[in-house]
Amino acid sequence: MLEALICPNCAGPLNFSAADGESIQCPYCHTTVLRSSQSPGGGRASHQTGKPVVSKTTAGPMLAALAVLFIAVLIAVISQIGDHRNRTGTASPSTSGKPPFARMILEFGSKGITPGHFKNASCIALDQQGHIYVGESGDHGRVQVFDKTGKYLSEFLAGGFDDLVADRDGTLYVMSEGKICRFKGLSGEKLPDMERASEDFGGGQTPVYYRCACLSPGVIHAITGYAVDVPRIVNLNTTTGRVAGTVVVTQPPNETLNLHRILRLTTGEIYGLDTEKGIVFKFSPSGAYINKFGGTSEEAFSDHPLPSQLQSPSSMASDSQGRIYVGNGSGIKVYDKDGNYIDGIGQNEFANGLAIDDQDHIYACFANCVREYVLQKH
Questions:
Q1: What are the boundaries of each domain within the chain?
Q2: At residue 189, does pLDDT exceed 80?
Q3: 3-state SS record for the chain
């Protein structure tokens, strides 16, 4: 008959049989253990008396089960802590080997079609009241509105659109079927469309096709496309909705311009993004070509792309220092105003839309979520 004891040195289970005599060596810590009925009586210090267990048949399995349960609980707690950190204060990996350029402080949304979820978030805009507008590409063009904490507020349908921007007062400008449609951002109430300019094409006057736009105080700058060889920038007064002027940009040497996004700094420089070539073109306030940067090549889609190159870029934004942010298939690329590469935010995720507030907080929409980043101090 087996007699179950516990090793007094390591608490390992011991099973004595009649054949073992009055001592046994612990198979875990190799201590020689005597039966409790025996006195150590001058033996070696390693000779210790075994302690009876609660049950002769279940001590081993009970200890093992308790150990497994403890480890499972510990792993679950660590996992929960890790998930919380990932959503509230994760430093975005730097692509330059330097300390992270920015860290994520907010993430909201997930895949779905119900309020607060996204099927394919493609554009993002901000107003001065702290509202976040997220547009989803598609025939209906759903626009969802959130507060600055990511809480869902409302939504409306704007129709299929190419781009959307918001002014400081919460008016939303949507580039839809060549027009600039206006909405009250929070309620979705439709406002009068902006005036549609015309230009000479094919021997007659043709309404321009507004493809994308950006805002300056009191002015919306819209890029025209499709019907002209050289895009024009049409400036419209946001109060009257009327055309206030037109700028024809200079064609770069050996390049055909096909601009899908526009950005204008407070100093007047204009940046146009060709999403097909992956190139950002820089122009003077009068439209004169200055330089270009970014670019896409086979290396950009390899396992080791050049950091400055772009993978299918789709959006642009700028901060108070004039830095240029470009959303693309490898997160967000950051350049100075001359096009010199600075760093990257995030990796291996497609940043579809970008917007930056007055505090230089960066908002990026991915296919199924929105993230807010703050710059790290260097």
A1: 3-57, 89-375
A2: yes
A3: CCEEEECCCCCCEEEECHHHCCEEECCCCCCEEECCCCCCCCCCCCCEECEECCCCCCHHHHHHHHHHHHHHHHHHHHHHHHHHHHHHCEECCCCCCCCCCEEEEEEECCECCCCCCECCEEEEEECCCCCEEEEECCCCCEEEEECCCCCEEEEEECCCCCEEEECCCCEEEEEECCEEEEEECCCCCEECCCCCCEEEECCEEEECCEEEEEEECCEEEEEECCCCCCCEEEEEECCCCCEEEEEECCCCCCCCCCCCEEEECCCCCEEEEECCCCEEEEECCCCCEEEEEECCCHHHHCCCCCCCCCCCCCEEEECCCCCEEEEECCEEEEECCCCCEEEEECCCCCCCEEEECCCCCEEEECCCCEEEEEECCC
